[in-house]
């Protein structure tokens, strides 16, 4: 990036009216000169002819970053020392913004690399894919079928517009299917890569299928398992006999009820349901006289991993207790606990926010007790059931209740 200018001008006579230290005159002269020229003195490497009859004590420059042709010009004004200082500071600012992902972004370099699957960025899996007999640029996408990015220009707009419009063809061999993305170049690139990773066709040999359309947006179509916990009756006396309850549910994202409901998913069978039953029995009901317990507290804990079907929420007395319960739930599907998916409630002091005894409030002239929130206690496992949501079929998998019997089909 180098500023350009015409040859240096000679100073006018040193009379008071021409004295360069006369700041008022200097400021007026800058305004007049910029208004007169309305353009930098250097464009695309060639000086613009200017009026040589009267030269000012400053020059007007366009700072050329040497990047995109349609990049807006950056105009600076001053003497030689001021020009050098401004150019240096602006260059440093540009580099700082770029390093933080806020500066210049060469969209067309990104688009060219995207179309060919970012060749030059390698991993063992990508090398294997590109070296196969089909020579794929993306999983399941041959080079001749690679995507195409094309910018659209307005034909009925005078002047500049502050957004870009791109037509995106997932397969350059089939122009009937296309998408429109708009925004800044940086925003468009983000939209394209997100859409590409989410589409079903983005998973081919060795690739990872997007689960957004088939899974996350269709959670209600997957079977789910619900675990129910309740406080023992003799432990709830201090609360007037009201027993604490907790229920935790999760989805079986690899399964559906019948063929064709969600492509690529296996149909759940009685054998699968029995397998879930046995796993829950071993973890939550291994010893009949010593049921599985949860120390319920005022702290709020979550475990959110939607692609695997988990959106768990638990009131526990500690993070360690919540982690223990989450790990045991993940064992049912043989999934591994990952702490990055576990969250802790926003309340910094749950005991203070949810006191054991709520203060009384004056209601129509009388003192009334408010119900306690997030009461503490021990809840024990009572039963587990599996629900098929499309047909409303329910299977009782495990039960410690005399009135809730295990489904006969699972015996």
Percentage of residues in helical conformation: 10-25%
- Can you write the helix and strand succession as a string? EHEEEEHHHEEEEEHEEEEHEEEHEHEEEE
- Number of DSSP helices? 8
Quote the distance from N terminus to C terminus: 78 Å
Shape: extended
Radius of gyration: 35 Å
The whole-number mean of residue pLDDT values reads: 75
Structural class by secondary-structure content? alpha+beta
The total beta strand count reads 22
Beta-strand residue percentage: 25-35%
Spans of at least 5 consecutive residues whose pLDDT stays below 50 are: 1-21, 37-49, 200-216
Taking the sheet with the most strands, its summary is: 5 strands, antiparallel
Would you mind describing this structure in some detail?
Helix content is 24%, strand content 25%. The protein is an alpha+beta fold and 411 residues long. The protein is extended. The termini are far apart. Mean pLDDT is 75; it is low at 1-21, 37-49 and 200-216.
Summed up:
This protein has helices spanning 23-37, 80-99, 107-115, 124-130, 185-198, 270-284, 319-331, 350-353; strands at 2-3, 42-43, 46-47, 59-64, 74-78, 136-138, 141-142, 148-152, 164-169, 179-183, 224-231, 245-251, 255-256, 266-267, 293-296, 299-305, 310-316, 342-344, 361-363, 366-368, 377-388, 393-399. It is of the alpha+beta class and 411 residues long.
């Amino acid at each position: 990036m180098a500023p350009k200018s015409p040859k240096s001008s000679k100073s006018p006579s040193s009379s008071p009216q021409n004295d360069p230290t006369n700041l008022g005159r200097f400021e007026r002269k800058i305004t007049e000169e910029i208004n007169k020229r309305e353009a930098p003195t250097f464009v695309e490497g060639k000086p613009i002819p200017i009026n040589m009859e009267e030269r000012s004590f400053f020059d007007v420059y366009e700072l050329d970053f040497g990047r995109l042709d349609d990049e807006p010009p950056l105009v600076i004004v001053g003497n030689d020392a001021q020009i050098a200082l401004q150019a240096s500071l602006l260059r440093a600012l540009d580099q700082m913004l770029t390093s933080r992902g806020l500066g210049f972004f060469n969209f067309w370099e990104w688009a060219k690399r995207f179309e060919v699957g970012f060749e030059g960025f390698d991993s063992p899996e990508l090398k294997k894919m590109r070296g196969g007999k089909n020579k794929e640029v993306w999983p399941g996408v041959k080079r001749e079928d690679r995507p195409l990015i094309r910018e659209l220009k307005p034909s009925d707009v005078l002047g500049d517009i502050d957004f870009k419009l791109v037509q995106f063809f997932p397969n350059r061999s089939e122009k009937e299917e296309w998408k429109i993305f708009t925004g800044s170049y940086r925003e468009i690139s983000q939209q394209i890569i997100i859409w590409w990773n989410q589409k079903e066709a983005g998973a081919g040999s060795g690739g990872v299928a997007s689960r957004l359309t088939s899974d996350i947006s269709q959670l209600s179509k997957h079977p789910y398992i619900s675990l129910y916990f309740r406080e023992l009756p003799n432990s709830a006396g201090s609360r007037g006999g009201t027993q604490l309850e907790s229920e935790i549910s999760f989805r079986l994202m690899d399964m559906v009820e019948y063929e064709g409901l969600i492509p690529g998913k296996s149909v759940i069978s009685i054998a699968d349901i029995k397998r879930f039953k046995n796993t829950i029995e071993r973890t939550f009901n291994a010893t009949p006289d010593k049921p599985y317990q949860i120390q319920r507290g005022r702290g709020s804990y979550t475990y959110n991993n939607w692609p695997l079907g988990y959106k768990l929420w638990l009131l526990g007395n500690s993070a360690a207790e919540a982690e223990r319960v989450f790990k045991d739930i993940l064992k049912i599907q043989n999934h591994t606990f990952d702490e990055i998916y576990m969250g802790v409630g926003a309340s910094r002091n749950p005991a203070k926010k949810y006191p054991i005894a709520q203060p009384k409030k004056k209601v129509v002239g009388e003192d009334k007790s408010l119900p306690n929130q997030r009461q503490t206690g021990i809840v024990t496992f009572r039963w587990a059931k599996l629900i098929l949501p499309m047909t409303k079929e329910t299977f009782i998998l495990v039960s410690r209740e005399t009135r809730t019997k295990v489904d006969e089909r699972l015996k």
